[in-house]
Write a structure and sequence with these properties.
144 residues; mainly beta; 4-stranded antiparallel beta sheet; 2 domains; 3-stranded antiparallel beta sheet; Immunoglobulin-like
Length: 144
């Protein structure tokens, strides 16, 4: 039996965010739209953010990664599969297909020029370097 509310092994804001994503997808699918939000793992180091997302069936030509600004990254893609079964009708169709867009907002300024992306075996991996903050503040002398 399938539950309408997914079970999470870890709590916190990521669980709440995923529930809201699933809620939005459930209603967009009820309205007849083919939309979904693939899962991503995001981790941070001192110098970069790392994103790994499951994108089964997405071809490189159908994937677009672009920066909205110095803190925001958008990932858009399209995936599809045959809508009919060769040997009869589908009993269950649970795999996600269609268009999606994921937006990631980072607290640090990101280095757009050195961001790297790889798509291998249905997994999109991104390394998004941070721009080092300069601590060289110039002092302004006050004249008499």
């Amino acid at each position: 039996m399938m539950s309408l509310i997914p079970q999470f092994h870890r709590g916190g804001l990521s669980a709440i965010s995923r529930i809201l994503d699933n809620y939005e997808n459930m209603f967009s699918n009820l309205e007849g739209h083919q939309a979904y939000a693939p899962s991503f793992d995001v981790r941070e180091t001192e110098k970069a953010y790392y994103l790994d997302g499951d994108l089964p069936g997405v071809q490189q030509k159908d994937l677009k990664i672009e920066f909205e600004n110095e803190h925001c990254l958008n990932i858009k893609a399209h995936s599809e599969r045959e809508s009919t079964s060769e040997n009869g009708s589908w009993w269950v169709s649970e795999r996600s297909v269609g268009d999606f867009r994921r937006t990631f907002n980072f607290p640090a300024t990101i280095d757009q020029d050195h961001t790297q992306a790889h798509l291998k075996n249905g997994v999109l991996s991104l390394e998004v370097p941070k721009i080092a903050e300069t601590h060289n503040r110039k002092k302004v002398d006050i004249l008499d």
